[in-house]
Specification:
The protein folds into 2 domains: about 5-130, Nucleoside Triphosphate Pyrophosphohydrolase (Alpha-Beta Complex); about 145-315, TIM Barrel, CATH 3.20.20. The protein is about 30% helix and about 25% strand. The protein contains 9 helices and 15 strands. The chain has helices at about 5-15, 60-70, 130-140, 155-165, 180-195, 230-235, 245-255, 280-290, 305-310, and strands at about 15-25, 30-35, 45, 50, 75-85, 90-105, 115, 145, 170-175, 200-205, 215-220, 240-245, 260, 295, 315. An 8-stranded parallel barrel has the order 8-9-10-11-12-13-14-15. It has a 4-stranded mixed beta sheet with strand order 4-1-6-5, with helices on both faces.
């Protein structure tokens, strides 16, 4: 057994396992609570939850903790993220679940302050380091558009504007057939036209091209994961990566990516020779990921519920969404 594997197993066996609830109300606000002065990380804001006791599932533990801490009864929740984090004094594993339905009124039953905030406001609060991927997940949409074939510049722009009119706020601009200079030209056009609409356009290209390292939204294809260092990418506001297995996921997480795509879940026309991984592979992949995961490959809106039940942030697609 290698020293690295031995260390990982030791951490896992001694980890403090915690159930965390990302609770949304009908207005789309999310619940946070402030740790009291007697708690670890006193004064920090956090998503409510608590330690998973022996014999409890994460769902049972979360329901108990939310009832005890903030007085609400969980009626529906689903997996969101599993996060492992090493603090100076302990190693924690957070089983994070999104709560979309509950009864009761949230109050601080343990003397803590509680507050409903807009997802975009979360960055204004001091949260524990381990909560940062949760903030990212809260800010990301459930469906992600990847561009497909277009006739010309105007057709590309029209399709993207139509997508934003239908609620898409994040678009990955994928056009591997374009010469680099033309790709950069069209990327700048999309960014200029769509950013005022609140849309983030991700660049899927070679970032060593002129002017690309300063661009705030980047996507790494799986074969580019080993071409960059974390230092080269740290100024990026949001960065995603394509992954097909756990080895690529590990490489992506070491680079500090904010979210990943796992593909192909089903047969896809854009990659007809790729063997579908299936739903169980998605479940296994999401269980290992410490960042949000988008299910990709032959999927669309009809697959969203199953993808999220499998632990994914949502669904990404070319053919189902590109019109």
């Amino acid at each position: 057994m290698t020293a690295e594997l031995d260390s990982s197993l030791t951490k896992a066996s001694s980890a403090v396992k915690v159930a965390v609830g990302v609770v949304f109300n009908s207005a789309g606000d999310v619940l946070i609570a402030r740790r009291t002065n007697t708690d670890h990380l006193a004064g920090y804001w956090e998503f409510p939850g608590g330690k998973i006791e022996s014999g409890e599932t994460a769902t049972v533990a979360l329901a108990r903790e939310l009832a005890e801490e903030v007085g609400i009864r969980v009626e529906h929740c689903r997996p969101l993220l599993t996060i492992s984090h090493q603090y100076a004094e302990k190693f924690v594993v957070l089983d994070v679940r999104r709560v979309d339905a509950f009864s009761g009124e949230a109050v601080g039953l343990e003397g803590q302050e509680v507050r409903w905030v807009k997802p975009a406001e979360l960055l204004q609060y001091q949260l524990p380091e381990a909560n940062k991927p949760i903030v990212t997940a809260v800010s990301l949409p459930s469906q992600m558009l990847i561009t497909g074939v277009f006739v010309n510049e105007q057709d590309l722009l029209n399709k993207c504007i139509s997508a934003t009119d239908h609620g898409f706020s994040h678009i990955q601009f994928r056009a591997p057939w374009l010469p680099p200079q033309k790709y950069v030209e069209l990327l700048k056009l999309l960014d200029r036209e769509l950013r005022p609409r609140g849309v983030k356009v991700f660049a899927n290209t070679n970032f060593q091209l002129w002017g690309m390292f300063d661009y705030p939204y980047k996507h790494l294809s799986s074969h580019r994961l080993l071409q960059f260092s974390k230092d080269q990418l740290r100024q990026t506001e949001l960065i995603s990566a394509s992954c097909h297995n756990l080895q690529e996921l590990q490489s992506a997480e070491k680079l500090g990516v904010d979210f990943v795509y796992f593909s192909p879940v089903k047969f896809t026309r854009s990659h007809p020779h790729a063997e579908p991984a299936g739903w169980q592979a998605l479940i296994d992949f999401c269980a290992e990921a410490t960042v949000p995961v988008y299910a990709l490959g032959g999927l669309g809106s009809d697959d969203l519920v199953q993808a999220q039940a499998s632990g994914a942030q949502g669904v990404a697609s070319i053919s189902a969404y590109w019109r």
